[in-house]
Write a structure and sequence with these properties.
By secondary structure, the protein is mainly α. It contains seven helices and no strands.
Length: 164
């Protein structure tokens, strides 16, 4: 998917004073004096998830085409919690995909190092030492553990724990 052409709609995403529009861009927060361009959930979430980029740079370029504008949108108090949830969902999706690849490649040993790095969340920018980071990591680990167990059961794989 190509990057969004920011300049082609600059007059719609920047107000008459040259300030970047944030909330009014979205139907979820629209005002009567401005016609929203997108819906966060219907238009932006699918593109965000499809970009599969935990750094969010690729998503920013596909969605708005201007990184500074993305940062304003991303950090707005009404929008940040929504995109935070997307980021967690994306991380879980990427880890789940990586775990599935590890299971498939375990017999051939191809690409498992990269898949393991993804499954372990090596790409995250979250501080796993903070209380919030630990809570998010625990939540993600629980979801992944469930999915892994379901995948292994479906594939007929059983784990044998070794003892002394």
């Amino acid at each position: 998917m190509k990057h969004f052409d920011y300049e082609s709609i600059r007059n719609k995403v920047v107000d008459t004073y040259g300030r970047r529009v944030v909330l009014s861009l979205f139907s979820e927060f629209s005002r009567t004096d401005y016609t929203p361009l997108w819906s966060l959930y219907k238009d932006w979430k699918p593109i965000y998830m499809e970009a599969e980029d935990p750094t969010e740079y690729e998503a920013a370029m596909r969605l708005i085409g201007d990184y500074e504008h993305w940062l304003l949108i991303r950090s707005h108090p009404k929008i940040a919690p929504i995109i935070d949830k997307w980021a967690i969902e994306l991380e879980i999706k990427m880890r789940s995909d990586a775990v599935r690849k590890m299971v498939r490649h375990s017999a051939s040993n191809q690409g498992t190092a990269a898949a393991k790095w993804i499954a372990e969340g090596g790409f995250t920018m979250r501080d796993k030492r903070s209380k919030k980071g630990k809570e998010e990591e625990r939540e993600i680990t629980e979801v992944l553990s469930e999915r892994l167990h379901e995948d292994m059961t479906r594939l007929g794989i059983s784990v044998v724990k070794g003892g002394k």
